[in-house]
Structure formats: structure tokens, C-alpha cells
């Protein structure tokens, strides 16, 4: 990816990104918008942004989010360290996903993931989060009932779901958005692996408009 300026999202903004990966860990790595372009935007600008993502994605309850946000304000240096760990974890999972997609051997990346998994606590109990409680869909959904006492908690569901993905048949279904300004990774559940956009409403429409414009310019240039 070429070096370009990266615009930071305001830490007080509502979560702006759709979740298109089909797995929590893939939505985690899809948190860089329009990568490699002049409009690239890392949505994980700080620890607070990761908390907002976790709340919107449904991996933290509102109570856990609020407790962790308060703790992060009291322990800013520790929260920043977890934020940096999150960025490193995101890079590791993306490298794994790309290796699996391309048929490369992921073995060199496994020890680092095993090291992270070895320090994980057991998954907590589950609970139902009521409709309208902050998730993207707003519907009822089951979430991890994390306590909101350890600043690393937002990373735990990412690691749990990464492990679940790696041992599943879905590793053979990984796809990548074919839009020129997107490299989102997703699970392609189509019968013939024909999904080419992370979202037809965003990247698909944008790419169709771009191609139509280019075709129109080509026709105009040919007629002059």
C-alpha cells in the first residue's frame, strides 16, 4: 500500500462504517476506509474508537462499554498501549486472511496468534441485548457478557472469533472487495463464489458509476 496521508476520525463521532465481513474478526480488520487512496481513513483513531466499534458490532454491552471508557480516561497510558496492541492484532489477522485467500502457507503467522490465544480468558456467558440498544441493525442479538474491567476486553471477542474462523470451512470462502478504493475482506457465501463487492449499496454503486463515467469519456474521446 502506498504511503498517503491518513485522516483521523473524530473520537466523538458515531460509528460510520457498515459491517460487511460476515465475522466479527473480519469486521475488525475492515476498519480502514478507502485504503491506499488520498481519502484513506483509519477508523481506529484511539482506544475510544475501538470501544465504539465494539458497542456497534455487539461485542460489548453498553454497561461494559461505559465502564471501560471511564477506566480509559483514568488510565490513558494503559488504554493507549491496548490501542497499539489492537492495531498490531489487526495487521496480523489481515496478513492471515490474505495468506488464506491467496493459498499461501499461513504457518509462519500461527505462532504469534497462538501466543495471543494462550493468554486469553475463557469466553464469558452470553446475554441477549434488546432491540434498539446501539447495534447497527438495532434488532435483538446475543452478545458476550464481558465485565468491563480489563482494558483488553474489546480484543478478546476478536481473538475468539479469529480462532473460530481459522478452524472453519469459511477460510475457503474468503473474498476481497474488487472496488478500486476498497480491500475489505468478507466471507463469500454465494454458491459460485461470485461476490465481488463488500457492499452493493456502497462500493458496488460507486464502482458502477465510476466505470460508466470512464466509458462515457472514452466514447467522447473516440468521437473527437
Automatic annotation (TrEMBL):
Residue ranges of every copy of the Zinc finger CGNR domain listed in the record: 174-214
SUPFAM superfamilies: Jann2411-like
Pfam family, one: zf-CGNR
Name this protein carries in UniProt: Zinc finger CGNR domain-containing protein
Highest taxon of source: Bacteria
